[in-house]
Amino acid sequence: MNPNPYIDEDLQALAEHARRFATDRVAPGFRERDRTRVLDRALLREMGELGFICPELPEAFGGLGMGCLAAGVIHEEMARADLSFSYLNLLASLNSQILSKYGSPEIVGPWLKKIVQGEAICAIALTEPRGGSDAANLRLRIERDGDCYVINGEKTSISAADQADITVVFGRTGTPESGAHGVTALLVPMDTPGLTTNRFDCHGQRAIGRGSIFFENVRVPVSHRLGDENKGFVQVMHGFDFSRSLIGLQCLAVARVALDETWEYITQRQAFGQPLSAFQGVTHPLAQYDTEVEGARLVCLQGLWLKDKGLPHSAEAGMAKWWGPKLAYDVIHQCLLCFGHGGYDRGPMEQRLRDVLGFQIGDGTAQIMKTIIARTRAGRKFVPA
Fold it and tell me: What pLDDT, on a 0 to 100 scale, did the predictor assign at position 230?
């Protein structure tokens, strides 16, 4: 990890510790998890025992109280080894922030400790068949019935849908015309009667997987509500600024390891009596991408640093989210080409390419991120949509 102003000695030591674990324990199963499409729960618990899940959470919830930059360096190291497996870190950090801030302590407390210990996976169920980027256009119904809420509808393209233990569900409690201001968030155990799931055959990130969650008269106690009724979307969506910076770091970490391997390869591979590194047509594209990866990483770290300081960071998070995944895909594509037919074979490089592509779609497209940046800079009234 290159030194920079955001990473102090403690964070550097944490990153080195995480890299040793990721190299020794996570990386060896990288391709096998892609083949089987199954996460290793024992490995997840091992990661939890070492403090690599949600280090930013306060100690009262089982975390280390180290801040968001600590989560960032861990996300990087896990993603270097396996982006799909590092999705577990992402889900844990995003959802734990939501639960700790908006949930009832007696309900969310035990779940938070399980998440931090690697004993539970929490999904987040926002996307629906009719609403992706238009995330506030929800149709899943949540209706109050005494001391319970009753849920009916479908969520789709949900990461870890069939492997999660609990999920944060967003649904409509207000009228369709109320938009984002008529949405409520609930914490729903995945073994609740009336809840079923399926699994998609995805292009990448196959170990974490994606699928649909179906709700048929699913009853959840009112105590499981996260935030205020009808304000779940407006309140909880602020947490996505955190996860967007993390996603940028994850994708760029994959790009970095691809670049490192390619720099080494082109010094060894001979063509026309010289190493490939002697040809500017090979080295100059890599040099440009290396420059951009370093710059994009600093934007991601800036977003986390601002969050740790309690300062606005929506624009930086948007930059991290659209730039990181797109840049990572372009970098890995170039690296694959440098390896020629060997890069095109089934193996680490093509799997990385498949894995990073998904983040250009999920958790906010580039167009949505650029709209957020524009609203931050120009003002929302001047950038209505």
Answer: 92
